[in-house]
Specification:
Radius of gyration: 25 Å
Order of helices and strands: EEEEEEEEEHEHHH
Largest sheet: 5 strands, mixed
Oligomer: single chain
Number of strands: 10
Helix content: 25-40%
Amino acid sequence: MQLYETAAGFYALRLCPEDLVGQSGQLIQFKLDAYAISVYALSKNVSTIPNTSDVVLTFSDTSAFDASANNGSGMAHITGKDLRLLLSKLTTIQPLGNKPETKPQNTPQANEDKELSYFKHHIQDVKIEGRYKPLDHQYVAAFFKATHNRSFDLSTMRTGKTGSTMLALEYLFRKGLIHRVMIVAPLTCV
């Protein structure tokens, strides 16, 4: 069984004979881990691959086919989005063409990952309050704060907002981009 992303929001599920429990016209039954899934789809959504016994079910998040899943504790009606979520938890979504999923090197996300690595490298010796190693999410928040002139950190309490702010300030001090800081806080916090 393989799940492919064919276009934005569209998926193709390729089922091998060993995955199929049964197929009768538009009704496809297959097993997936602990689930038995039955899908009654339109004929345009079900096709076979020539020279194989494989069946392909195409759908999108908004598909309105009748489908149900049973994991032994009862039946549940599922939509296209539910099916995609269930399938993506138990299998990997691959790009069409059966190539391993790789992140292109010139995407904004890849460039941001490189910049974040550079940022972490320059402040890796910094400890929060002189003794705590920063957590990954604090590096990400600090990177965002250091690379944007204005930002809000609306994280919930006890998630390290102050620590990530100090990391960002330390980085900016080390790079010579700032020379002093004014911190405004209630007197009870000081």
